[in-house]
Amino acid sequence: MASVTLEQLNDNIMELKKDVEELKEYMREDFVRADSVKKDIADSRKRPDSEFVKHDDVMKRYS
């Protein structure tokens, strides 16, 4: 098992704290979706599941 110094651990924690703050800020922002995006979302929700590619098929293709 590799040893980790307290300095390395602190650096990792500080980086994580920065990432979490960015995520929190992202979540706080009020995003206004463009009408075209709203339409795309509505259209995609109307598509039947049979039109989508199955997860297993994607895994077979890219594994």
Description:
- This protein is mostly helical and 63 residues long.
- The chain has one domain (6-62).
- It contains three helices and no strands.
- The two termini are 30 Å apart.
- The mean pLDDT is 88.
Which secondary-structure class do the elements indicate? mainly alpha
Helix content: 55-70%
Radius of gyration from CA coordinates: 21 Å
pLDDT < 50 stretches = none
Note the total helix count.
3
The largest sheet, given as strand count, sense and whether it forms a barrel, is: none
Order of helices and strands: HHH
Q: Name the overall outline.
A: flat
- Count of distinct structural domains: 1
Mean pLDDT: 88
**In what range is the share of β-strand residues?**
under 5%
Number of strands: 0
Straight-line N-to-C gap: 30 Å
SSE inventory with pairings:
Blueprint: H1 6-28, H2 35-46, H3 55-62
In short:
With 63 residues, the chain is mainly alpha-helical.
Name its key features:
single chain, 63 residues, mainly alpha
